[in-house]
């Protein structure tokens, strides 16, 4: 990844709402016609969530080039995904959006509900770390980024792999480093297939990521749309050039497509495993997972009603010295990281002989309430779950 930053931020332009409306109408028609629609996002999509961009007037790189300190900004873990983020989730869920290619590492796309197989995170994700030896990934509800005390190429986070004991490294791509192969390949593959690419909130100046939209942009028959406040180096090959905030365009676009922008719901998945060791001795384990089975750390503690012990670190294991049989109820008190002020959740687990049960936990930050749903464990998820040290 390579880049330079100018001292004077490029001028920002905002078109009239009427002009945006007309362009949104045309773009909506193009989306309906398209067979392979892809979206490419940059920092501009997260600014309305309180996360600063890089090259705007108060952007991180602009301030650095001017020798000024970075502005205070919202903690990305507490940021609420924007209208643009949520519109993309809806487009994904309806099968309209085939792949999301993002340069952002704030983790907001994944938290908003974009599935792991539907996103190429070209510059990494500050909530994701992986084992240097066995490549096992871990998603954390905290910043899983190296302190870079030993230089910007030392990505060690200080944690160890729960599977093999290997060193965990963050997924952030710093200047001068290669982009992750899986994500770059996925992005190129879909860019080749795309008949419509929409760029949201990127000035397209960071190579090689910025080359992705130019693939459909330069191909005959494919269309390129760019929504960004500043000009980009590829404006001359775009079919739709929209100067406005991404939220304004996406709200209009969803209206034209007659689709809702869903509210942000924080979704967590939890596996409860009850292993019978002797008639009255059981090992109960509680594990956070992603939709693809990747372990996710989002709990602070797990308490079992009637048990004195509180599990405060992964793996969350509680030993039960009582008879647990079909029909027995285990009541857990789950304590979360609380970035969205989510309160503790009491989970009633009805034991029915199946060793492992998956729960979908949904938290609505608007109402401050949790809801839970017992689900089937997809076969593929089980094989990934290896948390015993
Ligand atoms: Zn490992």
Automatic annotation (TrEMBL):
- What keywords are assigned to this protein? Metal-binding, NAD, Transferase, Zinc
What would you give as a GO molecular function for this chain, any one? NAD+ binding
The residues that hold Zn(2+) are: 131, 134, 161, 164
Record field: transmembrane:
none
Kindly identify the residues recorded as the active site: 123
Q: Name one GO biological process term.
A: negative regulation of transcription by RNA polymerase II
**One cellular component (GO) term of this entry:** nucleus
The record, for SUPFAM superfamilies, names:
DHS-like NAD/FAD-binding domain (SSF52467)
Deacetylase sirtuin-type domain: residues covered: 17-260
Q: Which segments of the protein form a coiled coil according to its record? A: none
Matching PROSITE patterns: SIRTUIN
Q: Which superkingdom is the protein from?
A: Eukaryota
EC number in record: 2.3.1.286
Q: Which InterPro entries match?
A: DHS-like_NAD/FAD-binding_dom, NAD-dep_sirtuin_deacylases, Sirtuin, Ssirtuin_cat_dom
Entry annotated with the keyword 4Fe-4S: no
Q: Which family does it belong to?
A: Belongs to the sirtuin family. Class I subfamily.
Q: What is the protein's given name?
A: protein acetyllysine N-acetyltransferase
């Amino acid at each position: 990844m390579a880049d330079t930053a100018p001292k004077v931020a490029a001028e920002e332009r905002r078109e009239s709402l009427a002009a945006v409306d007309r362009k949104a109408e045309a773009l909506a028609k193009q989306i309906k016609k398209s067979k392979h629609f892809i979206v490419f996002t940059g920092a501009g999509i997260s600014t309305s969530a309180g996360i600063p961009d890089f090259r705007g007037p108060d952007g991180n790189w602009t301030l650095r080039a001017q020798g000024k300190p970075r502005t205070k900004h919202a903690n990305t873990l507490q940021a609420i995904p924007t209208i643009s983020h949520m519109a993309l989730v809806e487009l994904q869920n309806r099968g309209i959006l085939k792949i999301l290619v993002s340069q952002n590492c704030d983790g907001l796309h994944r938290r908003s509900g974009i599935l792991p197989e539907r996103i190429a995170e070209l510059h990494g994700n500050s909530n994701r770390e992986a084992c240097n030896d066995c490549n096992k990934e871990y998603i954390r509800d905290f910043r899983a980024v190296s302190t870079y005390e030993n230089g910007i190429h030392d990505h060690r986070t200080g944690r160890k792999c729960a599977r093999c004991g290997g060193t965990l490294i963050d997924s952030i791509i710093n200047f001068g480093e290669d982009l992750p192969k899986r994500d770059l390949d996925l992005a190129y593959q879909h860019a080749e297939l795309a008949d419509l690419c929409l760029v949201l909130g990127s000035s397209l100046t960071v190579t090689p990521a910025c080359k992705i939209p130019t693939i459909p942009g330069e191909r005959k028959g494919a269309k390129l749309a760019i929504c960004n406040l500043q000009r980009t180096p590829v404006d001359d090959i775009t079919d739709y050039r929209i100067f406005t905030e991404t939220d304004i365009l996406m709200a209009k676009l969803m209206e034209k497509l007659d689709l809702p922008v869903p509210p942000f719901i924080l979704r967590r998945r939890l596996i409860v495993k009850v292993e019978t060791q002797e008639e009255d001795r059981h090992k109960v384990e509680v594990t956070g997972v992603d939709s693809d089975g990747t372990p996710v750390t989002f709990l602070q503690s797990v308490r079992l009603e009637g048990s004195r012990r509180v599990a405060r670190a992964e793996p969350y294991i509680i030993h039960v010295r009582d008879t647990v049989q079909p029909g027995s109820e285990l009541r857990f008190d789950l304590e979360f990281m609380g970035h969205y002020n989510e309160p503790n959740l009491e989970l009633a687990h009805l034991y029915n002989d199946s060793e492992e049960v998956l729960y979908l936990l949904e938290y609505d930050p608007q109402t401050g309430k949790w809801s839970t749903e017992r689900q089937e464990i997809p076969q593929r998820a089980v094989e990934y779950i290896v948390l015993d040290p």
